[in-house]
Amino acid sequence: MATKSELSPKLMNRQQRLKIAKSWSQNVNPKKKIKAYKDHFGVDKYCAAFELKKAGVEMSEKFAERWATHFERKRAHRKQLQQKKRLDPIQASSSEFGGDGEFYFIAGHTSAGFPYGITWDQALEDQMITREEYNSREVI
Question: Which of 30, 31, 69, 113 has the most CB atoms lying inside 10 A of its own CB?
Fold first, then answer.
């Protein structure tokens, strides 16, 4: 049975990877640290950039900051969407009718029961409705 220090790099958890990330990165081409980390430890590029940044590894790649902050931006966006959902009165009233307030026109439902059709945003974009109709939309 392998001890913790003998674990395959792809079987290591984040805490174990962070412990060795800085020393490991010293032997890697500075221009390809994210890709090398991703391949060596079996993580995706977002995770690799985040962990390298968290471990304090110097990276020369221009996009490293973008990858490292991907999860924070995604989390903030998800939180913003949830807050918008809570504050949108149309969605709250539409739950009585079984809809979610997103559709201007429901063309049908998939075999799994999900609706499909034209959203309010698409209807506005395609000039099917005016801005006033979009702002005063009601679920019938």
Answer: 69
